[in-house]
Write a structure and sequence with these properties.
oxidoreductase, 175 residues, alpha/beta, 43% helix, NAD(P)-bd_dom_sf, NAD(P)-binding protein, 3-stranded parallel sheet, two-stranded parallel ribbon, Rossmann fold
């Protein structure tokens, strides 16, 4: 397998293989979502943390994240304030996005979020983003789930396990 040099990142001591294997999906996505929503500059975790705390207080919903889409998107958009953005970053509910026409008239914004696009927009800061998120994992601020490990020879069993609905654990291949 060949990977572009810009997509590689160092894994510091204190970060397990399981954590490193999950790094490029959920932790980076959360960082990108928060940075995009808050307009915080990369590397300013404290500013992003304050934005999350301030927007979580009170009855106002000034933004939302949705990884499901489909029918769930209608409820998520309906819960946001007029003018509030919703970043959609997945389609677990299917390929069709459903929203109420009234929400369009209320100027609610649905914006796509693609991790690849976000990282591309970071340009030279990309490695700084990688290092910042990896440091949060290393320091235990971002906690990632452990999972079941399977030898590479048991790839079929591992794949079947990963497809189980409601699985609480990640599946890792070793070897």
């Amino acid at each position: 397998m060949s990977v572009p040099m810009g997509n590689l990142y160092p894994v510091p001591d204190g970060v397990t293989d399981e954590q490193a294997a999950q790094f490029s999906v959920n932790p980076l996505t959360v960082w990108g979502l928060l940075a995009t929503m808050s307009k915080a500059e990369s590397g300013k975790a404290e500013q992003t943390k304050k934005w999350v705390i301030n927007t979580a207080a009170g009855d106002s919903v000034v933004g939302a994240f949705d990884c499901v889409g489909g029918e769930v998107a209608r409820a998520v958009v309906a819960a946001t304030n007029p003018g509030a953005p919703m970043l959609i970053y997945g389609a677990l509910g299917g390929p069709t996005l459903q929203i109420n026409t009234l929400d369009i008239f209320l100027n609610k914004k649905i914006q796509p979020f693609l991790l690849r696009q976000y990282l591309g927009s970071e340009g030279q800061n990309r490695q700084k983003v990688f290092a910042s998120v990896m440091k949060l994992i290393q320091d235990g601020i971002i906690k990632l789930p452990s999972g079941k490990r399977y030898p590479l020879a048991d790839v079929r069993t591992a794949a079947a396990e990963s497809l189980k609905m409601g699985g609480k654990e990640k599946v890792f291949l070793e070897g």
